[in-house]
Specification:
- The protein is α+β, with helices and mostly antiparallel strands and 448 residues long.
- The protein has two domains: 3-71 and 147-316, BirA Bifunctional Protein, domain 2, CATH 3.30.930; 349-444, Rossmann fold, CATH 3.40.50.800.
- 32% of the residues lie in helices and 29% in strands.
- The protein has 13 helices and 23 strands.
- The protein has helices at 3-17, 39-58, 74-80, 82-85, 149-153, 156-163, 208-225, 273-282, 308-319, 361-377, 389-398, 409-413, 433-444; strands at residues 21-23, 35-37, 63-65, 87-92, 99-101, 122-125, 128-131, 141-144, 169-178, 193-203, 233-237, 249-257, 260-271, 288-290, 295-297, 300-307, 320-328, 334-340, 351-355, 381-383, 403-407, 418-422, 428-431.
- The protein is globular.
Length: 448
C-alpha cells in the first residue's frame, strides 16, 4: 500500500472514529456504495450546502430555488435519453463472477481480482428502476432520479408562470440522486446514493459565452469559500469526443484526491437540448418570450454542477494534516498530531470551551457561564470536559475545531481572561472576557 492509499485509509478511519461518516447498514455487514453521515459529518455537509446556497441563491436576484421530486414520470427519462442511453460498459469474470466497469481496468481480458479471463462486455443501465402504485406493469414503471437537473427542466414553465423572470435567470437545487454503480469505490467519491448541488441557468443563445465565463469564476470563488487549496484543483477543457452529446462546451474541475486527479465539479453549456426534448415529448410549449426584443425562442442553458459528497471528501482530504508537536516521547521521536485544518466556514464546531480541570466545581461553573455567552453569538460552540486538557486539545484538533477556549484559575482569581488556543499553530493567547466574543468572531470569519 502506498502513501496516498494510506492517507485515504486514515481519512476513512478518522471519519468513523469521530462521527463524520459511517458505512451504510454497517451492523448488517454494510451495503456497498452507501454511506451514513454522523453528527459532525452532517454539520460539515450542511455548512458546505449553506455556503453554496448563499453564494448562488440568497445573494442573487436572478436565481430561484426548487426542490423537485425524486420520483418522476418515466417519460421524463425517455425525453432526456436516460432510459435508453444512461449506461456503463460492464464485464464479468468467468471464474469469481466479480463485475467491473470495462473502461476502468488495466487489462480488458484479465480479472483484476483473481487474474482469470473476463467475459464479453455489455452495457448496463445505471438507473434504479421501481414501480409506482399497486399494479405492476409497464405504465407504473419509474426510476430513482440519476441526476437533479431534469427536475428543474420540467419545472421551467412553472417558474416562468409564477415568478415572471427576465432572461438570464437560473434555477438551483440541492438534492439526492441515485446511480447503480457497477463498482462503487474510493469512499464518498463514487457511491450509489449521493447529493448534488446544481444550477440550470437560462440565457439568450447569443449571450451564452458571457454567462459561461461568469460561472466559471463563481465556481472558483465557491472553492475558495470552503477552503480548497488552489494548487490541488485543475481545470480540464473537455474535448468534443469526450463531451456528453448535448454539450457544446464543458469544463471539468478536477481535484487531486489521494487516488488521483478526479472530477469534482462540471460546467457545461447544454444548449437548448433539454427544453426542446421535454417540449417535444410533453407537447407543452417551453419557449420564452422576450418582451423587450419582441421575440420568442427556446433559451439555452449553462449548467454548473457540484457534487456535495465529493466536496465533503475533497475538504477532508485537503484538511487532513499530520505534524510533530507537543512533548517528546523520547530523545529521538516526537508525538505525531493528526488534525483537520478545516476552514472556519465549514468546521462543524468553530469554538470549544474547556475548564482546565474537570474536578473543580468553580472552574466548571465559570466555563459553563462563558460557554453559554459564546454560544449565543456563535451557535457552533461545544463544551468539552471529557479527559485531561491534552486529550481535549487533540480531540478538537482531530475534528477540525479552529479555536479552544480554556478557563483556568487565573480566570477566576485574577480576572485576567481566558486562554484561546489556535488549532493550526498550537499557540495560546490570553484574552479578556470583555473582548472575547469579538476576538473569536474575527478569527472564525477570516477569509482564505
Amino acid at each position: 500500500m502506498n502513501k496516498k492509499e494510506d492517507k485515504l485509509d486514515a481519512i476513512v478511519a478518522l471519519s468513523k472514529r469521530r462521527g463524520f461518516v459511517f458505512q451504510g447498514s454497517e451492523i448488517y455487514g454494510g451495503l456497498a456504495g452507501t454511506w451514513d453521515y454522523g453528527p459532525l459529518g452532517i454539520a460539515l455537509k450542511r455548512n458546505i450546502q449553506n455556503i453554496w446556497w448563499k453564494r448562488f441563491v440568497d445573494d442573487r436576484t436572478d436565481m430561484f430555488g426548487v426542490d423537485a421530486a425524486i420520483l418522476m414520470n418515466q417519460k421524463v427519462w425517455q425525453a432526456s435519453g436516460h432510459a435508453s442511453g444512461f449506461s456503463d460498459p460492464l464485464v464479468e469474470c468467468k471464474k469469481c463472477k466479480h463485475t467491473f466497469r470495462a473502461d476502468q481496468i488495466a487489462d480488458p481480458k484479465k480479472c483484476p481480482d483473481c487474474g482469470s479471463e473476463l467475459g464479453s462486455g455489455k452495457q448496463f443501465n445505471m438507473m434504479f428502476e421501481t414501480q409506482v402504485g399497486v399494479v405492476k406493469d409497464e405504465s407504473s414503471k419509474s426510476y430513482l432520479r440519476p441526476e437533479t437537473a431534469q427536475g428543474m427542466f420540467v419545472n421551467f414553465k412553472n417558474i416562468i408562470d409564477t415568478q415572471h423572470p427576465k432572461l438570464p435567470f437560473g434555477m438551483a437545487q440541492v438534492g439526492k440522486a441515485f446511480r447503480n454503480e457497477i463498482a462503487p469505490r474510493d469512499f464518498l467519491f463514487r457511491a450509489r446514493e449521493f447529493e448534488q448541488m446544481e444550477i440550470e441557468y437560462f440565457v439568450n443563445p447569443k449571450e451564452w459565452e458571457k454567462s459561461f465565463e461568469y460561472f466559471r469564476e463563481q465556481m472558483k470563488g465557491f472553492m475558495k469559500d470552503v477552503g480548497l487549496t488552489d494548487s490541488k484543483v485543475y481545470e480540464l477543457e473537455v474535448l468534443e469526443a469526450d463531451r456528453a452529446h448535448y454539450s457544446k462546451r464543458t469544463i471539468d474541475f478536477e481535484y487531486e484526491f489521494p487516488f488521483g486527479k478526479k472530477e469534482l465539479y462540471g460546467l457545461a453549456y447544454r444548449g437548448d437540448f433539454d427544453l426542446k426534448q421535454h417540449s417535444d415529448f410533453s407537447k407543452v410549449d417551453l419557449s420564452y418570450y422576450d418582451e423587450e426584443k419582441k421575440e420568442r425562442f427556446i433559451p439555452h442553458c449553462i449548467e454548473p454542477s457540484f457534487g456535495l459528497d465529493r466536496t465533503v471528501l475533497a475538504i477532508l482530504c485537503d484538511a487532513y494534516t499530520e505534524d510533530e508537536m507537543g512533548s517528546e516521547k523520547d530523545s529521538e521521536e516526537k508525538e505525531k498530531r493528526v488534525f483537520l485544518k478545516l476552514h472556519p466556514s465549514v468546521a462543524p464546531f468553530k469554538v470549544a470551551v474547556f475548564p482546565l480541570l474537570r474536578n473543580k466545581p468553580e472552574l466548571i461553573k465559570k466555563a459553563e457561564e462563558i460557554f453559554k455567552t459564546i454560544k449565543k453569538e456563535i451557535p457552533a460552540t461545544v463544551f468539552d470536559d471529557n479527559g485531561n486538557i491534552g486529550k481535549r486539545y487533540r480531540r478538537q484538533d482531530e475534528i477540525g475545531t479552529p479555536l479552544c477556549v480554556t478557563i483556568d484559575f487565573e480566570t477566576i482569581e485574577k480576572g485576567t481572561g481566558v486562554t484561546v488556543r489556535d488549532r493550526d499553530s498550537g499557540k495560546q493567547e490570553r484574552i479578556g472576557e470583555v473582548e472575547l466574543i469579538q476576538y473569536l468572531l474575527k478569527k472564525i470569519n477570516r477569509t482564505n
